[in-house]
Amino acid sequence: MAVPEEGSVVETGDQAAPVGWVERTAFDYTAMAEAETAATWDGNARVYQWKDEYGDVGPAFEELEVELFGDPESRRDRQTGLDFSKIEQIEVIQEGPQRIEYIKTFADAGIHPVMLRNIELCGYEVPTPIQKFTIPAILQGYDVIGVAQTGSGKTAAYLIPILSKLMGKAKKLGAPRPNPARFQEGVDNVIAEPLVVVVVPTRELAVQIFNEARKLCYRSMLRPCVVYGGVPVREQGGLLSRGCDILIGTPGRLKDFIGRPEVLSLRRLKYMIIDEADEMLNDDWESELQAILSEQDVGNVYYGLFSATFPKAARDLAKKYLCDSHVRFRVGRAGSTTENIKQMIVEVSREGKNETLLTLLEEMNGVRTIIFVNSRQAADTLDDFLFNMKLPVTSIHSDRTQVEREAAMRAFRSGQAPILVATGVTARGIDVRNVMHVINYDLPSIEYGGIEEYTHRIGRTGRIGHRGVATSFFTERDEPLASVLTRTLLETNQDIPDFLQAYIPENWSSGTKVKFETESDFDPNDVAGAGEGCGDEGGGWNTADNVQGDSGGGWGNSGGNDANEAANASGGGWGADAAQPAAGAGW
Ligand SMILES: Nc1ncnc2c1ncn2[C@@H]1O[C@H](COP(=O)(O)OP(=O)(O)OP(=O)(O)O)[C@@H](O)[C@H]1O
């Protein structure tokens, strides 16, 4: 990366962008708010649709394929330069009485041929460590807890096996749906009866997972939908009324739709995934989550909990609901960071933060950067400050309208505004390619997430084999975090600045394991099993006995041959003939 000369500025007409940065764009938030009714929401993005005559698998559509997966050239390039070696070295710990034989390649897993092709189109060559375990476990019908570092492919770790299992069975298991080619609003509307629900804490994450589902559902009959706050309920209801097999949503909006049985019913639900499980178990979501969990058909639903950290609240939920048969996978220590991120802690005074920030942005200029602050007001103030310094910045926080939030994310993703100022919660789980630098302008305080929040925040960079830098400003206020922060740095062999040296544990020497009192790992005595929710008694977590041969569903057989078996069951719904594009087919 080019280091600019000190204080140098590139003159570009009357706008002068500091060296290395694109010109700033002024975002008119008031106009955006007024345009809300005419907005094109991210959740309205096109999904693959089929005609009845296709059978279980539809033909490819080049235009949509490029929209979903990018052009073929960029697909190939995506994998170059990825360094999986650090991820590969991390030990995967399997807990629970069941032993799952892990897969080495996607082809090993016995997944549906269309899913295999979609994985290839995504550019995924080998499964990540968490995927190696959760794919066979979910295919075999186990409830799963997956705890793995940020950016380690947890979304695909549950979507691939679930969608693969459902491919070829949508007709049999799913609700009748209108033919999209002939759909008439108000005439053909159906009640949405999803087979899968994914609950996530933020709107941005809901859209992101919806986009991953759009890719992985390509050419199948499975129709993904997303619902989240800030968009008129009527609009989202309209999308649901065309049928929905995979529903991704934020808890408040999901609860709202559950209260409208003429729009949404969970009676066909087979899989419930709680992503970013630790955040979802925050007190703020409790009533919504309870409403969603209590809605299901007892004993008939498979569960998955996924997160990068697993604090006590999440462990308590697992303890309450999970049965003996569930499997837990931990990639490294729960809450640990990845070695692909270079972490730097800089001591600053509160007054000196802006100046230090400008220096940093000058040193690492032009790269996609996320700056975290601790309050909405601070986000607005910092956005203004950076904009006045002629930097291409945008910001996102929960007081913004949905139009503003989506516009900010689009500007950041496209590179129009490569600097994003965000509060921690709104940026939870977001995955933007090539975020090279994360800056904690404010470190998260112990009361607001502490070290676990730190892990999630810096995890916006150094994702999936890429490398990144995370710089955090440390003021005297951050003293309570010093000890655990130092140990987190030691764990991945980071440099410890002088002012943190005193927090290096006594007797610690390089290569020894660092101890964490808030160890997010499961205590072996804390194992679930006596959960109220087992079997028929409550929350509906499955036992080993009911994993197989789900009545009428025709699934739940131990993984491996699912694709072939479904092909037989559906009268050869895929295979060469069915997969051929039908002449003149539309979607
Ligand atoms: N096997 C794979 N090979 C290459 N890339 C992959 C693979 N699996 C997933 N990815 C990509 O890795 C990125 C990170 O995945 P994802 O967002 O699911 O991570 P995560 O573990 O959920 O992170 P976080 O905890 O921060 O939410 C995504 O861009 C995804 O498309």
Automatic annotation (TrEMBL):
What InterPro entries does this protein map onto? DEAD/DEAH_box_helicase_dom, Helicase_ATP-bd, Helicase_C-like, P-loop_NTPase, RNA-helicase_DEAD-box_CS, RNA_helicase_DEAD_Q_motif
Q: Domain named Helicase ATP-binding: which ranges?
A: 135-328
Question: Which positions fall inside the DEAD-box RNA helicase Q domain?
Answer: 104-132
Residue ranges constituting the Helicase C-terminal domain according to the UniProt record: 340-504
Region (Disordered) residue spans: 523-587
Enzyme's top EC category: hydrolase
Q: Which UniProt keywords apply?
A: ATP-binding, Helicase, Hydrolase, Nucleotide-binding
Domain of life, per UniProt, equals Eukaryota
User: What does the sequence similarity comment in the record state about its family?
Assistant: Belongs to the DEAD box helicase family.
Full protein name: RNA helicase
Q: Which organism is it from?
A: Hypocrea atroviridis (strain ATCC 20476 / IMI 206040) (Trichoderma atroviride)
